[in-house]
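Running this now, will post back.
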Amino acid sequence: MASLAKEKVYRLRNLPLHVDRQSAAELLATCVDDLAPHQIRISSLANDVDPWARPPTKTATLTFHETRAASRFNSGPGEWDFPVPGLSKPLILDSHFRGLTSLNEVSATEHQYDCIVLSGLGSHPFGSWQPHGQNKSFMWVRDELSQFFPSIRFVLYGYDTTLSPSSSFQTALDLGNSLIDLLKAHGWTSPTAKPLLFLAHSLGGVIVKQALVMLAGSGQKETYIASIIRGIIFFGVPSQGMNIPDIITMLGEQPNVDALVKDISEKSDYLLHLEKRFAGISYLRTIKVYWGYETRTTRSVVSVGNTYSREGKNTVLVTKESATSGFCHTDPHYTIQIDENHSDMVKFTHGDYRIRVVASKLRDICGIKEIVTRSPVGLGHIPLEDVDDSFAGSRNYLKGASNLPVPPRNKIPDPLYWDRDFILEALQVDGLDDRFSQIESRLGHTFDWIYDKSSISLSQWLQRGRGIFWISGKPGSGKSTLMKFLLRDPRTSELLHHWHPMSSARQIIASFFFHYRGNLVQKSFEGLLRSIILQILKAEPSLFSIVCSALEEQYLERTKERGLDDLQSDLYHFCKGFQIREDEKLQEEVSAVIQSQETRSSARRALRRLSSWYPAQYPAIEKELLRHKDTMMELQSDEIAQYLETSWGQQFPGYMGPEFESAVREWISSMDLERQIHQLLVRFGLESSVNGHVKFLKFNEMNDEGETEELSKEGVERNIKTMCLRHKARNRVRVAIQAQEWSRTRLEDILHRLCGQRLVDLDLCLFLDALDEYDGRPEFITGFLKDLTKEACFPRTEIRILFSSRPWNVFREEFSSCEGLRVHDHTENDIRSFCISSIFANGRLTHLLLPMVEEVVSRASGVFLWVKMVLCDLFAITAIEDRHGTVEEDLRRKLDSIPDQLDDYYATIIMRISESCRWDTYVALESLARTANMLTAVELVGVIKHSLIRRWSATAPILQPDLSPKDAEHFIRDISGCLVDTESKYVQLMHQTVKDFIEDPQFRRMVLGKERCQIIKENGHSFLAKYMFLSFNKPLDSVFSFHARESERTTGASQYKFFSSFSPQHIHMRCSGHITSPLTLAMFAGLQLYLKDAHRDDQHVIANCSGSLLCAVTRGIHLGLQHEDARKMIESSVEKGFHVERDSVGLADIMSRTWTSHGSSDASFYFSIAHYLVDQIRQYERIEGPVLHYAPRDIAEVLLERGADPNAKDTFGRSPIDYAISFDERRSSKAKDLHNLCELYARYGGKLHKMAVDNWRDAIQHFEYNHLNCSELRRVGWSRGPRVKVESSSYGEGERRTARDYRTECDTNNRLTKRPRRI
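Update: finished.
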């Protein structure tokens, strides 16, 4: 009996977006003879990973039942195309699974993470995750793990790791770079990309590590991808090598042995260096890593006849220590034991308990709860996240007491206020339009030909054209300068004005300049949408109503989801309980209550009576009132005046008087929903007030038996409170929608609505520069432009687009039929003039160079940058003396050797540089690419010299460059191959394309070579930090700390050995304040890896530090250290033995900043870190100095409860109560807050020490004037007798006040609140 053929899993791509599994099977069956739909088992069907695909498609994974048709796919190329009539792309069936494959469908609303799955060496991308056996219908990641996580999209990554036969010589670096390219091409550089997770087996984990190391040290795109990586689970990934001598023997002399296999073997230094850098980068970026290790042996490979088979002795391919990077001993919580051999450790069967183990680790990485319970939100329920649990009620508490007929009801929507200025500010982000100002303006009459040449159709297009006009050109040909010129030249607007001379259409010009070297918004699709929407709304404010309608739709959808309905429904439901007939009177009353919540109208009604300044100052004040309405609604009546004075007193001097305060109170009162409901009940005679007590005349509810019962007063109040809370919950929904992040989907929807508007006739002309610098798939952006300009797409908006880009094939294919021009076709005369003038200016061998001009012009293709570099190379040859016979040949040879493309030219220049100078080249180019600060040639030489210092020696002088500026410039030109411009005062990279070239992940390898590249960890940040630390003419400021910190983040290596080699005297000489040792220097700069290495070498170094670590951190924050990094430094130092109570100076500094930073962005950080530090104190009685003096009340209470001295003295001998009354910042606090703080000190035995009796008496009177009980404070005494003696009965209990006392009290109150006394 013949054995069953082993099943094979296939992937089917390019399926239309509308198909389901059945129709997908039917569609494939029509393409293959003798194949029926029921013979196709589709196991997954999901949207393709490519976000830019146009049209978007789906991908399926499937198997075939045993059929003759299926057998045709068991051999052959592994990929088959099936053209389908009506589809723009053929269906593609393959079994190799190369590239990315989505394994499960995730809804857009739930999608939160992407998890990429990588297989190991010599394995199949899909099959390696399947159990052994004939049946291949189950794959645990796709079929079981994904079921635990509806918010995670699992994506398979397939790459070629065939062992034999193989002619490949790809290295781990090449594979890591390929993974990076794939991530960039599939949208993970987008600001809206989802965070990344990885599951990686064997070699796949090495690739992930290599990719992360390369990402962290590369350009902005790459570092962004590194920043969104959240966690990794490794399965048998070697960090110390694999035991594979048998594999090396089997492969013999194949090129993949030296290129790849030996790099992951036990004798490899590559893995050790890679692991150190990966460990540092993953630690700094808080990437959570779990390490799976095998506990069964694997048969080695031996020769059996003419083939090789795993029939040799048992061996452990990856040891426990190697697979866990040593965590099995130091932190086994992060390890996963899998009792299988190396291959089978990822071949889980259905229901395998280890799948749940992996799922638990993923949950831990993502912060997803083990069990997520969602109680259904019923009609009228208040979501618990919106209100306090004590008020979580339902309007259905009233089950209805009446079935009265209901007349037709006019729908009254909730009055919604959308803050136009707030929304415009949210759309505007930092740097959105910076690129335009950075582009150089044209020189002389450059580009005038674009208007003058009759062969160029731009003028006609501006006047009468439609659709798209494309300006193409190579890098360096001046496209951006041309676009800036067109946008600013008045001739452009004049020509556009004649577009429709008889039309009354509103004309808007909007522009966006993509900037690849800018921040993420400047080069993203989201940035384009933000900019265009912003410009349209500013140019035509009436269109803001369209944005409001979109926001209102979101509001209605979200309130419906949460069961909040609307205010009208709540009010009618509430009135049913009173058996109020739903007639016209009730409709009018309900309408009045709803209209009272209309923010803008109620504000205008309240402020109209201020005729002294209305309406002159009204718009500005109205704007502020509306923006702060939600805050003021939460204030007590007596707090409003202080809030107005504090918030707007300086902005509107003279207007914050009693009259204005009264108007604001009236406005807030008019919007008090609870008050409005009570008034409604009064008007219907259902509520009365007797002696100030509210009495409800009748209110019923229906019990479980259907009988009507009277409801208590408390029940009525509870229902009114619930209704108000529901209204507040709805308002919070509105605020959340207005403040939510402008996602790409939301931006696309708004732009489509604006273009599809029917309010005005709109002529919209878009100027878009550098589409090739867009950070995404060019196919997507081209489709977007074509969709915008489709005729009859928008009823009252006509859109035209003028854009520029490089002449990429994708642009040629889409826009070849559009009007346009190529810049390089029209700049020959300019380049020719430039060449001739440069040759004569050089003055050497002009007769030999002039004949080459035409060739240079021809090969330049309009790229001025290339021409400048070529002339520089040729002039270098003419400068060499004593070369009469071979100069012409040398010039010809040089010109012939120069590549036509810039990137190839740059690589050629690097290869020309001598190997002995390559280190200097690397240091110089890396440093210039990493810094935003200007460096002179002498300073750059200094950076190169200092780069070689590994440790400081007191006997060895610090090298300082002794070159003159001219010699330094000459040196920099030589070692950079003229890629550095030295013509100005400061040196800089010759062009932005050079910076792009340096930031490429392959640059380091190109300059240093494969072997040295693996050993060298330092980059430009490292070199700059060293130089600034060693140069006494460079201050240790925010620039130094930035480079030192970024050195760790981008290399994964600490500079512990370097900084720790310096004496405290040297550091104290270079620094100021509390930075007195290498350890405090690390705290100041936020060097987390330094802290880790220092503790590894000496576990008591942090506990025994004599300097103030906390003061060093606060100094770092002042100079740019981010709060999150500062928190990590403090928490890490505590974990490593730091005793908080020993650093009283630093702790007091943190406490004081909770007051001095009030109202700033630092305030919340200092409050939270102060709470954290107090919880870490071990011996509270050892706290010294003014820690308690500076502590906020809640922290002070914790300190006192745990034993802090309530009478501790500061440097001036003041007790905490002394300080509370005298400290300026606290004197401006509310009287109640200051009173509570003093009362707290007194309760724990606090006494006065330095305070004068008169001052203490004034404080008591100030508190009593504010109706605060001071009986506890009057019992407070002095620790050493009062400083000024007074009669003890002068201000005793129950003493009658005199007029003088009252004046004193008022004066004290005015002084303490910093207000002038009113006369």
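The first strand starts at residue 10 and ends at 16. More later if anyone needs it.
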